[in-house]
Specification:
With 146 residues, this protein is mainly alpha-helical. It folds into 2 domains: 40-79; 84-146. It is 84% helix and 0% strand. It starts with a helix and ends with a helix.
Length: 146
């Protein structure tokens, strides 16, 4: 519907341009219309020209409408994924902070039994989570580029 509203100003501009040069059109029309022998049916020529113009305009509008429908469908499909990006970014930030705390040995141990091997397993688990979040972000970015 928006495209139809955008077409009217263009049509009005074309009509104004034709109106400004009506002298040239008048000369051209009188030289063409002078058919003393009556062999040309001008109503058929005019009807054919208008029909061709109408078909071209309808085809163009149909093509634009089809493109808009495809774009809306793609947007609706990806809108949910785009909304998840801030959540994923926050999770990734948290995981990076946890990992850096482990590396700098500033992580608080919950008990005396928390040893280096426990820290290593926790670090590997955090790294797996970070890697999966990175892959998910890459997938979302690839989806946006399409």
């Amino acid at each position: 519907m928006d495209m139809q509203n955008d077409i009217w100003p263009q049509l009005i501009a074309k009509a104004r341009a034709i109106h400004e040069h009506q002298e040239i059109l008048g000369i051209a029309a009188t030289s063409i219309i002078k058919d003393e022998e009556g062999q040309i049916k001008w109503s058929a020529v005019l009807t054919g020209g208008l029909t061709a113009g109408l078909i071209a305009a309808a085809t163009s509008l149909f093509s634009v409408q089809q493109t808009l429908t495809e774009l809306r469908t793609k947007y609706e499909g990806r809108a949910a994924q785009v909304e998840l990006i801030p959540t994923i970014a926050e999770r990734q930030r948290f995981m990076v902070e946890e990992l850096s705390a482990l590396r700098t040995e500033k992580a608080a141990a919950t008990s005396d039994r928390f040893r280096g091997s426990d820290a290593q397993r926790l670090e590997e688990r955090l790294q797996r989570h970070i890697d999966s979040l990175d892959r998910r972000i890459d997938e979302l970015e690839k989806g946006k580029k399409r």
